[in-house]
Amino acid sequence: MAVSAVQNSTQALAESLGVDLSRVPEHVAVIMDGNGRWAKAKGFARLLGHREGYRALRGVLLAASELGVRYLTVYAFSAENWRRPKDEVMGLMKLIETAAREELRVMHQNNVRVHVSGRISEVPDGLRKALTDGMATTATNTGITFTLAINYGGRAEIVDAVKSIVAAGLSPEDVTEETIQAHLYNPGHPDPDLMVRTAGEMRWSNFLIWQSAYTELVVTDVTWPDFKPQHFLEAVETFQRRTRKFGAVVE
Ligand code: FPP
């Protein structure tokens, strides 16, 4: 009889959906889109969509962790999202702060390591404090690294990397791809293997544009508040059917 490597209910569900547990992507990035459309379709305020989005994120983080994903990076607030109505922006900031505080104990118990990505110095003090507390508390955890991209822009990240290279006094001939990688917000993170985008749009929206040069993109029409662990596992299964070539020829 075959010995099953299944260790938890997420892995059992994954296997039933055809996921190969021995080839789980190391790093998954997620563009959590469609909160507004979900709310509008139900006649709710947009912020309610974001609140349901928080619920969905909780399920996906647990599923990713149980599946054995090592890095999960989510786009919680882009550098361009400041253009939204002020009450939505402030509501989102407050929601993310509350979520960071509410979830910290459970994340820590589950050995999750919290990181952030983005121009965090520009977010409200309360949120910044919640994020720095979360990072400090979980710094030595060895489970999944959960990165919240907040006030994040891919172009801004490259600009910040270049500024930091110039400030370090490097000469042009010393600048390589590795140099730029080393000056990104989280230089130790591997590139995402898989990027999942919900709510149907076929674009990157300035998310991890340096890191996703060879990332596989999986787009689903499901809006983020309706996105369940099963959808996440289905995206992983789709990813596993792709052939990654990194510019080479694969027979
Ligand atoms: C995009 O939907 C979503 C966002 C701009 C915010 C993502 C935030 C959450 C999922 C809330 C919870 C986050 C944390 C970290 C607790 P949209 O508003 O652009 O949707 P639309 O395109 O349908 O209008």
Please give a structural write-up.
- A six-stranded parallel beta sheet has the order 3-4-2-1-5-6, with helices on both faces.
- The chain has a domain at 23-145 and 215-232: Undecaprenyl pyrophosphate synthetase.
- α4 packs parallel to α5 (125-138).
- The protein is globular, with a radius of gyration of 19 Å.
- The mean pLDDT is 96.
- Helices cover 43% and strands 14% of the residues.
- β3, α5 (125-138) and β4 (145-152) form a beta-alpha-beta unit.
- It is α/β, with parallel strands linked by helices.
Give descriptors for this structure.
251 residues; alpha/beta; Undecaprenyl pyrophosphate synthetase; six-stranded parallel β-sheet; globular; binds farnesyl diphosphate
Quick summary:
The chain has 251 residues and is an alpha/beta fold. Helix 1 packs across helix 3 (46-67) and helix 2 crosses helix 3. The model has no long low-confidence stretch (mean pLDDT 96).
